[in-house]
Amino acid sequence: MEKENEIVEKLKDFLKEKLVRATVPKKRRIFIYIKKDALKDAMKYLVKDLKFKHLSTITGVDLGGEIEVIYHLAHEGSIVLSIRLTVSEKNPSIPTITDLIPGAVLYEREVHDLLGVNFEGHPDLSPLVLPEEWPQGVYPLRKEHELEHLREITSKKSKREERN
Amino acid sequence: MSYGSIIKVPFGPQHPALKEPGNFLFEVDGEIVVDVKPRIGYNHRGVEKAFELRTYIQNIYLAERICGICSDAHTTCYTQAIEELLGVEAPPRARYIRVIIAELERIHSHALWVGIAAHEIGFDTLFMYVWRDRETVLDMFEMISGNRIHYAMNTIGGVRRDIHADMVSKIKKGLDLLEKRLKYYLNVVQTEQTILKRAVGVGILKPKDAVDLCAVGPTLRASGIKNDVRVDDPYAAYDEIAFNVITHDGCDVLSRILVRCEEMLESIKIIRYGLDSMPEGIIRVQVPMKVPQGEVVSRVEAPRGELIHYAKSNGTTKPERYKVRSPTLGNIPALCKMLLGGYVADIPIVLAGIDPCFACMDRMAFVDVKKNKEWVWTMQQLRRKYAKK
Amino acid sequence: MNLFKWARTKSPWIIHFNTGGCNGCDIELTAALTPRFDLERFGILLEGSPRHADVLVVTGPVTLQVKDRLVRIYEQMPEPKHVIATGTCAISGAPFKECYNVHGGIDIVLPVDAYVPGCPPKPEAIIDGISKLIQKIKKE
C-alpha cells in the first residue's frame, strides 16, 4: 500500500484544495474525487509525471440530478486509479482528454451517447451506440428512463416502419 | 503510387470473413487503404441497463452471455467484483478451479482464433486441423460442467462444480495430446510459407502507438510490451502460480499468431500446476442476497486482453450501476491504425489479428474514427511512405 | 419429386448470420463444419453470399440496428428459401428479451421453418435441425 499512498500524497500536493477526497480501499486500487475544473491539470500530471498511461475505460453514473464521470487509469498495468468528478445533469459538459490519451476517443463517445455528457473539444461526438432513428435527448442509462419507457420508444419505431 | 480517385469499399455486416455483424467502410486508393470507418453497433443489446434491473444472482447468467467465447472471463470478473463488495473471499480450491477453467478457456479461444486466422489467409487445412484439436478442450468442458460453451462454473462465493480425481487424469491426458499438437502448429506457423508470406510485416502496430491507443492483451504483447493483468494485478490464484508473459516484438500479424500459440503452451503448464497443487476443501461459501453499499473495479485477463468491470451497489438486491468494458473495444483504435496504409487484400487477416469479438464490444459501442486526426494519415504522408518502398 | 427439389434436398447451401447474439451459437455452428462433426459430408455447404444460399441460419436476438439488414439478406436469397432459428436467443430473445435495443426472436421479422433450441445448441443439434428441415422440404 506504500506506493498507493505515495501517489495519493503526490496528488494532494499537486491539486491542493481541488482534490475533494482520496481513498485507497485495497492494494492496487485508488479512488480520487476532484473538482470539475481540475480535470485537465490532474490528467496531465497523471499521464506525464506519474506514468498513468493506460486508460482502461470511462464510466458514467447517473446520481440523480448529477452525472458522475469516472476515468479508470492504469499505472503500467498494475495500479488502477479511478479519478472522478460530477457534472450537473442540465449542463453536463467537461473538457476532452483525447489530446492527452488518444485511446480515450471511443470511451468518451460511449459516455456521450448513453448519458449525454458533452466532451468539449472532442473531434467527433456524432450519435453512435444507438441506431440512427433513436430520438434525440433520450439517454438510456439515465435513471429517469424506465425500461418500459425505452421499450415503448423501440416499439414505436418498429410500428412506424410497418406503416411506411 | 496513387491512382487519383478514392473508392469506397464496404465490408460487412454480412461478410464471409466476419462471423459476426460489423460494418467497415474502407476508402481505398488503388490497392492501399487510406481511411477506415468502422460501424459496429449491430450487436448492441443494452446489457448494462439490464444489469441494473436484475438481481445479483440473475446477473451471473447475463454476464455469462455477454460473450460466448470468453464467457468465463466475464463471470470471473463479475463474481470477484461482487465478492469484494460483500467482503467474502472464494475458498482456495475454488480459486484454483477458476484458474484452471480460465486457462482452458484461453486455449479454446486462442485455438479458435488460430483457425480463423488461417482461414482468412486461405490456409483451410490448418483451420480444420486446429479446430479438430480444439474439440479436446471442449470435451473437457463438457466433462467438468456439462456444457461445451457457457460452462456456468462461477457463482458468487466460489464455483458451482468441483474437478474430481478421475477428471484430473482425463484432463492431463488431453493436455498431453494438445501439447504435442500445439508444438507442431507452432512449428508450422514459423516455417510454412503460406503463413509467412501473408503475415510478416502486415498490420504493423508500433509500441508507442500501442500504448497511446490503449491497446490490450495479445495485441499489445505482440508489440513487445509486457503487460498482463494476471501478473500485474493478480486475481484468483494467479499470485501463487509462476508463469511467463509471452511477448514478441515483431509488431505484425505473425507476432500476434506467435504470442497466442506460445500462450497456449504456457496455459497448459499453468493448468498442470493447478491440477497438481489444488488444495482440498469446499468450493463455495454461502453469501447473502443483499449487497452492502460500495463500489469496486475488477479486472481480469480475458483471452483477448484486459477486461474491466465497474460495479456500484446501493444496499439492495440489484446493482446501482454496472459497467463492462471488453478488450475488443480497447483494441479498435489500434486496429484502425494497423489497417491504414495496408493493402485491401490484407484487410481480413489484419482485422482478424486483434481477435475481434463484436458480441462483447457492441453491448456498448460502435465506432467512427474518421475524423480523429490523431491517426488518420494524409495522402501525402501515405505517398511518401510508399514511394520509399 | 422434380429435379430441382431433388438437388436441393441432397445439397442445401446455408448462409449464417448473427443478428446480435453472444457468439456461442456461431462458434458451435462453425464447429459443426469442422472435422469432428463435418456437416459437409451431408452435402451441406456454408456459403458466403446470400445469393447462392438456400437456407438462412440465424443466431442471436434481433437488435434494432440489425433488423433492416436481416430483412435485406433474406430478400437477396433466391426462392425457395428457408430459415432456421438457432439458439434460444433467435427463438425468443432469451436473456436479452427485455433489453431496450432488442426486438426479440427472429420470427417477428422473418418466417421461420425450423427452431433449434439450446444455449448454445450442440453441433449435433444443429445438424439434426438441418436434417429435419430437409425432411420438411421433401414433403412440400
Outline the structure in words:
The complex is a heterotrimer of chains A (164), B (389) and C (140). By secondary structure, chain A is of the alpha/beta class. Chain A contains four helices and seven strands; from the N terminus they run αββαββββαβα. In chain A, the strands form two sheets. Chain A has a five-stranded mixed β-sheet. In chain A, strands 6-7 form a two-stranded parallel sheet. In chain A, 40% of the residues are buried. The model of chain A has no long low-confidence stretch (mean pLDDT 83). Chain B is α+β, with helices and mostly antiparallel strands and 389 residues long. In chain B, the strands form three sheets. In chain B, strands 1-2-3 form a three-stranded antiparallel β-sheet, with no helix packed on it. In chain B, strands 6-7-8 form a three-stranded antiparallel β-sheet. In chain B, helix 2 (56-64) packs antiparallel against helix 3 and helix 4 (92-120) runs antiparallel to helix 11 (253-277). The longest helix of chain B has 29 residues, at 92-120. The model of chain B is unreliable at 362-389 (pLDDT under 50). Chain C has 140 residues and is an alpha/beta fold. Chain C has one domain: Rossmann fold. Chain C has a five-stranded parallel β-sheet. In chain C, strands 4-6 form a two-stranded antiparallel sheet. Chain B binds chain C through residues 13-16, 19-21, 41-47, 49-50, 53, 61-62, 65-69, 71, 112, 115, 127-128, 131-132, 134-135, 138, 148-150, 357-360, 362, and chain C through 15-28, 30-31, 34-36, 48-50, 60-61, 63, 65-66, 69, 73, 94-96, 98-102, 119-120, 122.
Largest sheet entry of chain C? 5 strands, parallel
Order of helices and strands of chain C: HEHEEEHEHEEH
Termini separation of chain C comes to: 10 Å
Radius of gyration of chain A: 18 Å
Shape of chain C: globular
Strand line-up across the major sheet of chain C: 2-1-3-5-7
Overall average residue pLDDT of chain A: 83
For the sheet with most strands of chain A, the description reads: 5 strands, mixed
Residue-averaged pLDDT of chain C: 86
Helix tally of chain C equals: 5
- Quickly give the CATH architecture of chain C: 3-Layer(aba) Sandwich
Question: What proportion strand of chain C?
Answer: 15-25%
What low-confidence regions of chain C span 5 or more consecutive residues with pLDDT below 50? none
SS-derived structural category of chain C: alpha/beta
* Quaternary form: heterotrimer
List how many beta strands of chain A DSSP finds: 7
